[in-house]
Amino acid sequence: SLGERLKTGLSRTRGAFAGLGAVLQGDFTDELEEELEEILLTSDLGMQASTEVMARLRVRVERDGLKGDGIRDALKAVLLDIIAPCEAAFEPGPGTNVVMMVGINGAGKTTTLGKLAAQHKACGRSVTLAAGDTFRAAAVEQLKAWADRAGVPVIAQDTGADSASVIFDALASARAKDQDILLADTAGRLQNKDHLMDELSKVVRVLKKQDANAPHEVLLVLDAGTGQNAISQAELFTRAVGVTGIVLTKLDGTAKGGVAFAIALKFGLPIRYIGVGEGIEDLQAFSAQAFVDALFE
Ligand code: GDP
């Protein structure tokens, strides 16, 4: 099952937290604090989030005089508190909802877009894809393959076409056909960062000419396996475009998952989905409880 696959994916982190039993034998000593902080760091929380988690844990431990397993449960509660607010699904409104995918090359944008197309379709929604990554030659072909798999139409132009105009035309077409969802792919790499961010803000600007509420969702796709790199990517993209949700991919691989807590603390954005494989069904709605459980079980 997907739940099992997530656990397997997070097994290294799970190993770290599951092994807490041996560490948590008695009082909350300095040595124990150091050991816990080390575990958080190796689980990809990063320095800032690890420090925050330890501070919150210390408050609980001192307030309630916790020891051993009590400390473990308090850590779990602290982690859950941090990511629980990130559990928020995207609810499509009336008309054509534009969902724009952003993220660097290789993060899993196109794959996630394909999985999402299949999910929306399974929910009875009509879906059109826009091949907005006009920079990478293979990107359009890859998107067409996902469109076939999901059984949805794709609007594309030649490589080198203007991304904003491809997505603008796709929206016109999707609106004319009363489509519920337009899923727009975008480039993950151009000549340089500024150029890429300019292009993404242009896409947003142009879409608004057609529908002031578009894009209705901007999903930032982050490879959870890149650890703290994911944080700097999030900084870059949230500054350039109004990101409304995060997708954490490749949690079935060697990713440790801690980056979710760092993102929650730093950006406070919803984590809409997690990617747990390369197949069309390997996308789960984010559940804070299931996520924390997977790290500890
Ligand atoms: P893009 O450049 O951002 O569009 O990234 P792609 O969608 O092309 O994905 C890059 C690679 O990551 C591909 O080989 C995908 O199959 C793989 N990938 C994407 N999401 C996941 C995931 O959740 N788990 C695993 N294991 N691989 C993934």
Summarize the structure.
GTP binds at residues 103-110, 185-189, 249-252. GO terms for molecular function: GTP binding; GTPase activity; signal recognition particle binding. By secondary structure, this protein is of the alpha/beta class.
Work out the helix count: 13
| Small-molecule binders | guanosine-5'-diphosphate
Largest sheet: 8 strands, mixed
Low-confidence stretches: none
* Mean pLDDT value: 92
Structural class: alpha/beta
Keywords: Cell membrane, Cytoplasm, GTP-binding, Hydrolase, Membrane, Nucleotide-binding, Receptor
Subcellular location: Cell membrane; Cytoplasm
GO molecular function: GTP binding; GTPase activity; signal recognition particle binding
Subunit structure: Part of the signal recognition particle protein translocation system, which is composed of SRP and FtsY. SRP is a ribonucleoprotein composed of Ffh and a 4.5S RNA molecule.
